[in-house]
Amino acid sequence: MSDSKTPSVDAAYALETPEDNVALYKSWAKTYDDDFVDRTHYQQFKTISDAVLAQRDRLKGPVLDVGCGTGVVGIYLRDAGINDIDGIDISQEMLDVAATKTSSNGDSAYRNLIQADLTQTIDIADNRYGAILSAGTFTHGHLGPEALNELWRVAAPGAMISIAVRSTHYESDGFAAKLDQDAMDDVIRDLELTEINVYADDAPNHSHAADTAMMVVCRVT
Q1: pTM beyond cutoff 0.70
Q2: Which residues make Cβ contacts (< 8 Å) with residue 152, sequence separation at least 6?
């Protein structure tokens, strides 16, 4: 387990196992929005969500928010008019916070919330979702590209995928190779890669303010 006991971006980046993840977010869940989302001017979740919203006219079926955390993506999509959103996360404490989130109209951000470990088979039927997005799950070292197979499995044919992979992990942890191979094998199509900023341009001068991620957009065949 990571030596870091205090919730922080550094502690999140140091996660090595699912157990590390559960322990960190158990203690961070109640203050996560203030400590991280607001204080650091985190914007990656908006960029990932906007890619789905740009294709909203082609969405067929519900949306799955992978690693939904406290629900910032759910609120953002709900306020943009997307109604059927499910969220999964390994941390029950984060899910408990997400369950309290409502849109500007007072509607629950999520239709269903599911505790799941993406290193295992998740309890969701095949071909279930019309879009899958993940704003922060693939930024930690404990979760590699093999977890993408579960996303492909629960996505309906033609489903849109929009995920962020931390730039420092994209090549070295095998995400680039995995996605290239899946595209060659026609598991996914229309693969687009864009390097994006994790934090807003006006972010306070913290140690990760210049961090970037690779935004992966594609469709499941």
Answers
A1: yes
A2: 182, 187, 188, 220
